[in-house]
Amino acid sequence: MGSLQLDDFVAGWVGGAAGVIVGHPLDTVKTRLQAGQGYGSTFNCVRTVYKNEAVAGFFKGMSFPLISIAVYNAVVFGVFSSTQRFICQHRYGKSNHPPVLIDLTLASMATGAFSVGIGSPVELVKIRLQMQTQTLLTANLEMKYRATGVSVQNAYRGPIHCVATILQQEGLAGLYRGSTAMFLRDVPGYCLYFIPYAFVSVWITPEECLSPTPFSVWMAGGIAGIISWGTATPMDVVKSRLQADGVYLNKYKGVIDCICQSYHSEGLKVFFRGLTVNTLRGFPVSAATFLGYELSLKALRKEAETNP
Predict the structure, then answer these.
(1) Could you give the angle at the alpha carbon of 81 between the alpha carbons of 77 and 82, nearest 5°?
(2) Cβ neighbour number for residue 23 with a 10 Å cutoff
(3) Where are the bilayer-spanning segments (predicted)?
(4) At what angle do helices 214-245 and 275-306 cross, to 10 degrees?
(5) What's the Cα-to-Cα distance from 108 to each of 30, 79, 113, 191, 292, rounded to whole Å?
(6) Are 249 and 306 contacting, i.e. CB atoms less than 8 angstroms apart?
(7) Handedness of CA 113, 114, 119, 124 (dihedral sign)
(8) Which of 4, 127, 140, 308 is 20 to 30 A from 101 (CA-CA)?
């Protein structure tokens, strides 16, 4: 059992790292758009980031999720697989029984709930680092400077300093800012992530194959990513705004307040900000994550069988 857990951890890191590298540039664009910093369109955001910060600007905040994704993905895939086996064992008497829709749904919901504990601080630090732009809204900069005496441009020197600063200024609860919104995003989001993947991978796998082919895994993962991220966008906007809030001003009191303020100031369309980026990003990120996970897991277990 310990070997399996190590396999899941390593495979989770490989898959997660692949997803981060492929999707982080678009994730940076999505975060900037959703936080409402006056970029306007997706194209204008890309152009502005490149003009002010060059290519490196698209990779801000990547080191922390790249390192921590090992633990996060191990939790995500480990909890999903373990919960699915547990449900099948109790419902059918054997853990390897093919799961039905209700089994996949319960396992996905459990995965979403568990993932928030680790994923919320990771997302918070990533977003805080991504939001450190070279050009900020003048009003925000002046108000923050008057309040703290420190320029926001130099607020965080890196992920470790970011965590230390948040703990010092906001306490442990500060690392979980936006966790409620993340819970509301991820519980249904993982249902629309693992369930489409499971069904599509089986559907497009040739009948003569005992397990999904790399192409099936890649395609099913990409489709699952589009569905999951597309539907999660409204709550993802709320989560991003809550987590980015502390970089400038603490203007939101919670999820409901963020929803109300965002709606009153920008209308219903604000909750679909970043939808295009999320959809475009969803396919390659999820395809890379599932493919990296499945291939590395298969390789690790094959090696374990040949070297008992």
Answers:
(1) 115
(2) 24
(3) 62-81, 187-204, 216-232
(4) 130
(5) 25, 9, 9, 5, 20
(6) no
(7) positive
(8) 4
